[in-house]
């Protein structure tokens, strides 16, 4: 089933305004969410919409947040997101990071008391039009074991870095610090498929291919899957993201990060901080070297890597290439939606008396 990109975005706006978001905040949140679908990151797109509504229903989401500055230096800020949509709080935090960078060369914003912020790449890319390098990261509910552990202590904890170029499209690396994002498991669950090797382990710490392993007491694995394939590096990346997003910001961290409404609704429990945290940054290129020289060299870098000799039948890609090309296609041809997502969206349409159309 296909949904028109712009109609789908308008539907998402209507859902967010129905739970009390301002028109401006609803439009921003919808742009983040539907952009994920357009870029092929279906796990973080409209499939998540019902989850945000469940957060609102359970009193964990403030649709009219008063985002406050708690601490500030010439190049840094600590924000309280007032339990707002991370889809709204994070873009506003990124704007502040860019404003700081414009004055100080770099700008860094730590956020506490927020919620799930969608795809990290959306926020990092906000810096690129200003000839800045953007950084975005967030922690998430504990679904991931440290290497050699049976205990879930970390989230999928993504990190994104966006770097401008001159004639070439921007470089965008956007990836979870786990073998796979949890949303990819949800997609396999809906399709009734097993996971590839190295994604999950069962409750006893044994390798598993069960897409429902987490619901049955198992866990996601760090990037690398196991120690022999470098899982300690994925564990290290996830730990850095958690410390910058949680410990530095004063949000919850580690096993205390509140859950998103994923595998059925999970109620927030014991806390050591305030809500979910993010960490965003912007680096002004000309704070390091002349922008024109850097952009020229980035074009050279991108072209050299893209033209690398490839193995037969393959092509070397630049981070961000597949998503950028898919975004052009899906905005033109429509967003594919699987039946369970259609059912969720139809239920929201019925609840809020909205039209939901598919091609």
Mean pLDDT: 94
The coarse overall form would be globular
Helix content, binned percent: 25-40%
Uncertain segments of ≥5 residues (pLDDT<50)? none
Task: State the total count of DSSP E strands.
Answer: 12
The percentage of residues in β strands lies in 15-25%
Largest sheet: 7 strands, mixed
Order of helices and strands: EHHHEEHEHEEEHEEEHEHHEH
* Termini gap: 7 Å
Task: Give the strand order, joined by hyphens, for the main sheet.
Answer: 2-3-4-11-5-6-7
- What radius of gyration results from the CA coordinates? 20 Å
- By secondary-structure content and strand pairing, the structural class works out as alpha+beta
Specify the number of helices.
10
Report on this model:
- The structure is a single chain.
- The chain has 359 residues and is α+β, with helices and mostly antiparallel strands.
- 37% of the residues lie in helices and 15% in strands.
- The protein has helices spanning 5-18, 23-38, 49-57, 86-104, 120-124, 182-191, 231-247, 291-306, 321-333, 339-352, and strands at residues 2-3, 68-72, 76-80, 106-114, 132-138, 159-163, 171-175, 200-201, 207-208, 219-220, 276-284, 335-336.
- Strands 2-3-4-11-5-6-7 form a 7-stranded mixed β-sheet.
- Strand 8 and strand 9 form a beta hairpin.
- Helix 1 (5-18) packs across helix 2 (23-38) and helix 2 packs across helix 4.
- It is globular.
- The chain starts with a strand and ends in a 7-residue tail after the last helix.
- 50% of the residues are buried.
